[in-house]
Amino acid sequence: MRHDLLVSLRSVNAIERELVEGEWMTWLGEELFYCDHAAQLLTEMPKEKLEARINDLAKLREYCRDCNQVYGKVKERFSRLA
């Protein structure tokens, strides 16, 4: 009975891990979309407004770069599986 319970728990853990990874990938995809959208909006902004928010832009650039790096690592991992 204990063995059956452990096997069941492992199955539940595996399913939960897949669900969490799937949700995380969805979130990452949305963040990448937001980064692209923000970059498009920034190209339309007047230079004076951009200069006034230079610190915010640096933080946004760093955040988007991190998201893209993580996506690159995930993509590389999946390409190795194929």
Summarize the helix and strand pattern as letters: HHH
Strand-residue proportion: under 5%
- Provide the residue-averaged pLDDT: 92
Structural class: mainly alpha
Provide the helix percentage.
over 70%
The rough form would be described as elongated
Rounded to an integer, what's the Rg over CA atoms?
20 Å
Distance between the ends: 38 Å
Tally of helical segments: 3
| Low-pLDDT segments, ≥5 res | none
Number-wise, the strands total 0
Could you describe the largest sheet, including whether it forms a barrel?
none
The structural domain count equals 1
Task: Give keywords.
82 residues, mainly alpha, elongated
Walk me through this protein's architecture.
The mean pLDDT is 92. It contains three helices and no strands. The chain has one domain. Helix 1 (2-43) crosses helix 3 (54-81). It is mainly alpha-helical.
List the helices and strands and how they pair.
Blueprint (H helix, E strand, L loop, with lengths): L1 H42 L3 H6 L1 H28 L1
Brief characterization of the structure:
This protein is mostly helical and 82 residues long. It is built from 3 helices and no strands.
